[in-house]
Amino acid sequence: MAVFPQELNDLRAFDIANAMLDGFDRHYTLFRETSAQAKKRFEAADWHGQQRAQRERIEFYDMRVEECAERLQTEFMASTLSMNVWQQVKLHYIGLLTNHHQPELAETFFNSVTTKILHRSYFHNDFIFLRPAVSTEYIENEEPTFQPTYRAYYPTKETMRDTWLRVVNNFQLARDFEDLGRDVDHVLTAVARELGDFRPRANFQVQVLSSLFFRNKGAYIVGKIINGFNETPFALAILHSPASGLLVIDTMLFGEDELQMLFSFARAYFLVDMEIPSAYVQFLRSLMPRKPRSEIYNALGLQKQGKNLFYRDFLAHLRHSSDKFRIAPGIKGMVMLVFDLPSFPFVFKVIKDFFPPPKETTRELIMSKYLLVKTHDRVGRMADTLEYSNVAFPRARFEEELVAELKHFCPSLLEEDGDDLVIRHVYIERRMIPLNIYLQEAEPSRMAHAVIEYGNAIKDLVAANIFPGDMLWKNFGVTRNGKVVFYDYDEIEYLTDCNFRKVPTPRNEEEEMSGEIWYHVGKHDVFPETFGPFLLGNPAVRDVFMKHHGDLLDVAFWQGHKDRILAGHVHDVFPYDPAKRFKNQRRLRDGVPPDGQERRRSELQPENPSALDNSLA
């Protein structure tokens, strides 16, 4: 039962609440400025600047929390205040949020600052926001100059083309399109193919979110087509044409599954200018109802809010389940102890206190690798992680075997506190089927597809300047829709930091017959031709791999990509099947197949994607 102060009688409480909200408002102002500038960077084709902004924006939140905590400590000696004062601070803070446009984010900021200042024993008290106190429903900006969350268009069959032209032109991109009329004709064809020979109902409309979604080299228009009781989500991808340097609509995506791939947990966060983020989340959930709100907040770059919502969902799941945490199935890692709750689709990863040979690393180095992944472009191939400190789990929900493993491998991170087992530092990732297990159980066609996807995953990582380090099958997972994703980060390096070499020719028979490495190997030396013996023991796997990805065993492949990246090239990695690109559809219509990497990708789609979706966890 909540215990509130009898009266608001401490004058410091209101000043602290105001200072706290000032800290949040400063954070969100800077967050929005960075997101709004993404449009100019896109127009100028400043890809390195866009990636730098995506990376640096992630650090904004913690910097503002530190600033605010320091201010509260300096001005109010905040860590010495009584519980009664903090209760008053919270009540004043709630009052200040009544007409605020980002109340849910401000509540999370309040939690972050107070838990930074106070001891963990306070965290379960009523002064933090264990549940939201201010509703985010129907928040509107009443200022006349403010644009609404989304625009609604009401086309007829006769005005359909003009409507789609307006949809694109209303974003007022400063760079010209190569041929907008041609691209809109492609959009009309795609819409007609998706909707079929439909009859417009009285409510027929197109709703489009008012801000563009920017990520890497792309901008996306996101919305839905409403006709009667049917709603069709869509996204238009806008890119720069390599040939002309002008803009093109590259493709149009439809439906929840294709938008889920665009907003995947394995991709970098979008840059989106939002006055009312909760309204964007509500709209996006109408497009992707199976996607948790926490993941949508993450995709919008509001990862602290996503983290907060995820933890609330986790606590709710604990209350409504009774199964026990266990050691996760699969091959145990040398660096991480991994456990899960069978009924919950995530895994928990704890860094061990010690590592057996040949691992030579430290906790700090491993944490730096995970931070690298968080701030880097994940290109759909590296799972996002949620990082938590001082997580209290119910001790009774742990299998004894798991507790013994934690006490043996991670004693420095473990604390028993009454009925709770407190883990001082843990990463949480979405659970996937480990690729080594999937390959053992899959029928031949699915096995072949997974091997091809594995090679595609490595090549996408290479394009993003990431060398995965340990490329064993067990370090990759298979998602619900059959995509292969990397999730073991303790040995990753920037590709440009690696030295790719051929194995030297033996100088004599003794060296040729030696079972040991007889040549010098530097810290960052990589020998691609040696990957085969570790990966390709299964003849069926080897045949598929060599047919589609034999170049991964060639030093020239790796060195060529390294050279291009060092020269400043930013590769294209599409969050959709390249066969869907309008330019490739034109080529196929004209009898010309897609070329190069795009041909490789388009040929490797599963024959029955929907069947594959249904077969995977």
Automatic annotation (TrEMBL):
Active-site annotation: D384
Domain Isocitrate dehydrogenase kinase/phosphatase (AceK) regulatory positions: 17-322
Residues annotated as binding ATP: A328, P329, G330, I331, K332, G333, M334, K349
Compartments, record wording: Cytoplasm
Domain of life: Bacteria
The enzyme's E.C. designation: 2.7.11.5, 3.1.3.-
UniProt keyword list: ATP-binding, Cytoplasm, Glyoxylate bypass, Hydrolase, Kinase, Nucleotide-binding, Protein phosphatase, Serine/threonine-protein kinase, Transferase, Tricarboxylic acid cycle
Region (Disordered): 584-617
Reaction(s) the record says it catalyses: L-seryl-[isocitrate dehydrogenase] + ATP = O-phospho-L-seryl-[isocitrate dehydrogenase] + ADP + H(+)
Stretches with biased composition (Basic and acidic residues): 587-604
GO molecular function: [isocitrate dehydrogenase (NADP+)] kinase activity; hydrolase activity
Domain Isocitrate dehydrogenase kinase/phosphatase (AceK) kinase: 323-577
Biased composition (Polar residues): 605-617
Pfam families: AceK_kinase, AceK_regulatory
Family statement drawn from the similarity comment of this UniProt entry: Belongs to the AceK family.
Function of the molecule: Bifunctional enzyme which can phosphorylate or dephosphorylate isocitrate dehydrogenase (IDH) on a specific serine residue. This is a regulatory mechanism which enables bacteria to bypass the Krebs cycle via the glyoxylate shunt in response to the source of carbon. When bacteria are grown on glucose, IDH is fully active and unphosphorylated, but when grown on acetate or ethanol, the activity of IDH declines drastically concomitant with its phosphorylation.
Protein name per Swiss-Prot or TrEMBL: Isocitrate dehydrogenase kinase/phosphatase
Gene: aceK
